[in-house]
Amino acid sequence: MEKTNKVFPGKLVIGFLLSIVMTVLAAWIALGTDFSKSVIMWMIGALAIFQAGVQLIMFMHINEGKSGMINTINIVYSVFIAAVIVAGSIWILTTGHAAH
Amino acid sequence: MSVDQILVTGDPLILASQIAILLTIIGAVVGITYFKKWRYLWEEWLTTVDHKKIGIMYILAGVAMFFRGGVDGLMMKAQTSRPNMEFLDAQHYDEVFTTHGIVMILFMAMPMLIGIMNVVLPLQIGARDVAFPKLNALSFWTFFVAAMLFNISFVIGGSPDAGWTSYFPLAGKEFTPGVGNNYYAIALQIAGIGTLATGINFIVTILKMRAPGMTLMKMPMFTWTSLVTSILIVAAFPILTVALAFMTMDRLFGAHFFTVAAGGDPMLWLNLFWLWGHPEVYIVVLPAFGMFSEVIATFSRKNLYGYKTMVASIVGIAFLSMLVWVHHFYTMGNSAAVNSVFSITTMMIAIPTGVKIFNWLFTMRKGRIKFTTSMLWSLAFIPCFTIGGVTGVMLAMAAADYQYHNTMFLVAHFHYVLIPGVVFAVFAGLYYWWPKMFGFTLNEKIGKWHFWLFVIGFNLTFMPMFFVGLDGMSRRMYTYSEGLGWEGWLGFSAAGSLIMAAGFAALCYNIYWSFRFASRDVGSDPWDARTLEWATASPVQHYNFAVVPKVDSLDPFWKMKKKGTFKLKKQDIKEIHMPSNSAIPILMGIAFGIVGFFLVFEWFTLAAIWSLGIIACLVANSFDYDDGYHVSAEEVEETERKWRGDL
To answer: Which ranges does the record mark as transmembrane (chain B) (predicted)?
Structure first.
């Protein structure tokens, strides 16, 4: 902890800049472009997920320290489970005969 | 509501059960009072937080539920043994197959496995208890109360009758207006809470409480499978919780999650049920694989072949098990893409499972095999389970499944997976670890009767089902006409079920006989085993280990025996800190049960009042400052001296 206080916090600055860039980009896509509504939703959704990743790594240090590995595995696993349940259910219930 | 709306009346079989239940309760109360055992029962068992005692209670409850589910099975076999039988009517048959399924999976397989995990797992990793002992007791009591709540359904209010899968729209209020299916929604919910807590408890125990030196890749295989099972529980059981909550909303409060009437979707129930239901299959089968691994390694007198591939295949199975659930409802009419993807993932699961089969075979290769009863169960498991697995790959092909779907072929398949995969494992585990629980081994000769009767009966019962299934018999048919060519097969099957029942009776007799007559002089390590649980006394001291062992390899106890380092020095013995007993878990479990009962009958005011009891227990627990007690070094020394020669 003491060591990181003395050096220039490059990681934090990069994270800060990346976050600003992605936020501005999302605002510009939503307000300043003529993409269709669904394309806009997909793009800003993707940017939001990237930004969450940046914040977790740069600011919340999930991959550092004693439990870094465990935290990372936990998050990746939770995302996997959530994706399987939500995306899987939507896929199954909207594509078959049952939906039509 | 009048009495005859609450009690089920008019059926002689059920009347007899009501009388039997009443007499049993009276007998138990009178017996305990006569022998003055209430205090003993309360202090030693009902309020215990000792993982070994909780495990034993799980196993006892599991055996009782096995009996109940088994009787359900026998009734079904009797009803279909001849064409046009008039033993059970359609309604009664529906109730019987519904409760058979739920009791066997949730109230027999789960508690048996969790019970053995409870007894063995902390011992295998060199811990003195689980991470959260009181929570562990609460898990048991919520399970037990839920099992009792579910079991009274057939005498009070009526059994659930929409199948263990309870598919909508049949399971909805419109088509099943009685309280039976409320029992399903509420009892499973309560049991699910306990199971989820168990999963969390075991994950923390394994990750945080291993003996010094025991890295993840030095854990015994049963510990590995328990860890992966616990992770699957934590991933899958919340899905059941949500699905059951939706079902409760639909049935009790008129919501429409699963009814088409107001824009709900019955297929969403199937989807959520199997999102939990398929991982559940692996939740029960993985610990069983771990038990076989321990038993086969011990009785082949070799270390487990391919430890690392074994670990990899367990993790692989767990990963894939979350990705196959649609194979339970290909016939709902999915798109070709959905069915193809799930066909492939399902067939892929056979690969890691096959790896494990070969690992067990190679463990036995050139080993000096001892044919004890628990080894026999493991040996019989391999061919029987392989039949179940291969027919599973047949069912995995979506196009072919349109033929097999909901036929007796499917019923035969999953019994060939679950009985060898879980029941044989539980039997192997019970014979193997029995001395750790009670200090004597079960009788080997009666054990072999148990084994042969059960295995022969099992094959006779379920093998014919493949053939009647291919001949077009669908599952859950309560009667059939003459001349379909099924009579012979089903007659065989019914006879087989009686032989299987005789096998179970042999187990009960064996337990009785061994309690009375078996030699208590079997030492602490009767099988010359390999892992740390055998470094304790039989039955295990309440604090497990006088000194926490140090581990530097796989099979640590085997190494200690070979190197002669299994010794205890007097100066190493220190005071031991243990958790105190608590009445909160059982009281909270009872409160859950009462609230559940009122919810089943939709008496909401009473349910609300009694749910204050649950909250009161939570509050009481928050103000419980009991940090446990200390076992003095002198007491430890005295206990150790009784069973070790070297102190």
So the answer is: 12-35, 56-76, 96-123, 135-156, 183-207, 227-247, 281-299, 311-330, 336-355, 376-400, 412-434, 446-469, 489-512, 583-601, 607-623
Q: What is the pLDDT of residue B58?
A: 96
Q: Does B243 touch chain A (CB under 8 A)?
A: no
Are B93 and B79 contacting, i.e. CB atoms less than 8 angstroms apart?
Answer: yes
Q: Would you tell me how many other CB atoms lie within 10 Å of the CB of residue A54?
A: 18
CB–CB contact B271 A89 (8 Å): yes
Q: Are B474 and B403 in contact (CB under 8 A)?
A: no
**Over the stretch B297-315, which tens digit does the pLDDT of each residue have?**
999 999 999 999 999 999 9
Q: How many CA atoms are closer than 13 Å to the CA of B303, on its beta-carbon side?
A: 15
What single string gives the DSSP state of each residue in chain A?
-HHHHHS--HHHHHHHHHHHHHHHHHHHHHHH----HHHHHHHHHHHHHHHHHHIIIIIS-TTSSTTHHHHHHHHHHHHHHHHHHHHHHHHHHHHSGGG-
**Residues of A with Cβ-Cβ distance to B326 under 8 angstroms:** 92
Task: Specify the length of chain A in residues.
Answer: 100
Distance from CA of A90 to the nearest CA of B (A): 10
A-B contacts at Cβ under 8 angstroms: 39
Residue B167: per-residue pLDDT: 94
Per-residue CA distances from A35 to A44, A47, A73, B541 (Å): 12, 16, 36, 71
pLDDT tens digit sequence for B452-501: 999 999 999 999 999 999 999 999 999 999 989 999 999 999 999 999 99
Contacts of B373 (CB under 8 A, 6+ apart): B427, B428, B431, B442, B444, B447, B448, B450, B451
Tell me the pLDDT tens digit for each residue of B322-344: 999 999 999 988 888 999 999 99
Q: Which two tokens stand for residue A41?
A: 């939703």
| DSSP structure class, residue B1 | -
CB B505 within 8 A of CB B449: no
CB B468 within 8 A of CB B494: no
Considering only CB atoms, B268 lies closest to which of A77, A91, A93, namely A93
B186 in contact with A, Cβ within 8 Å: no
